[in-house]
Amino acid sequence: MNPSNAVACLLAALSLAGMARAEPVITVPIRVHIVRDLVMPKDGLSMSSWVTQEQVRDVILPEVNRIWRAADIAFRLGAVGTAWTRRPPDFRERVDAVVTARRDADGESDPERIRHLGELVAFAPGVPGTVDVYLVPYLGEASQGNTKRSLRRVFVAQWTDKASKGRRAPERFQLSEPGVFVHGSLSRTVAHELGHVLGLRHPDKRDAVDGLLMGGRFPGYALTADEVAKARRKAARLASRQDDDAD
Length: 247
Ligand SMILES: [Zn+2]
What we know:
Blueprint lengths: L2 H18 L5 E10 L4 E3 L2 E3 L5 H16 L4 E11 L7 H9 L12 H9 L10 E6 L8 E4 L4 E5 L1 E2 L10 E2 L13 H12 L27 H15 L8
Parallel strand pairs: 1-4, 1-5, 5-7
Antiparallel strand pairs: 2-3, 6-7, 8-9
Helix pairs in contact: 2-5, 3-4
The structure holds zinc ion.
Zinc ion binds next to α5.
């Protein structure tokens, strides 16, 4: 192939790629903080953080971005590092309150556990437009993640008992789950919580289609067209740092 043919081929390939991608990718900055000195005792376990910075970079972020590619939204890892706990006088009581938090008869998690956790973690000062994900050992019975949207702050648990609905001891959450949804993964939970940061809510289980990232009777990885449009509007505001949480 002579050089001018090579250039023509390259240009053709680029225009094909452009045609395949209808929407420009919106990039949202994210920081991941692994809470290192928090030990949470339950069922004879001493749960602490086990995810490494390399796993955040090499497994979790790529899987999150694979899922969000359906919306042409990419999360760019600005930093991954360690977060530490504060040591209020009632430290142990607050840890116990998180560990023993249960779901109520309707399956709703106890919001108090997040308030206690908020007193235990030394948060990094927020950066406009940037999402902060805190990886903590455990978030209470059958709970894997929680998002405080106004602060763009996400908690994700590294130990889970959701598959047994809390009937068995928590186990280390698998980092990612290849193939179809079975139990989900830590990466999928991060992707789900980022959906909340981007303004998405859980679908109504009565009329939701199956296989959705945001939940339903049979959850999965997909986003509806409405969810894609809503998430992109919010992501664009975050990316431009114009986010005012108006919605
Ligand atoms: Zn959720």
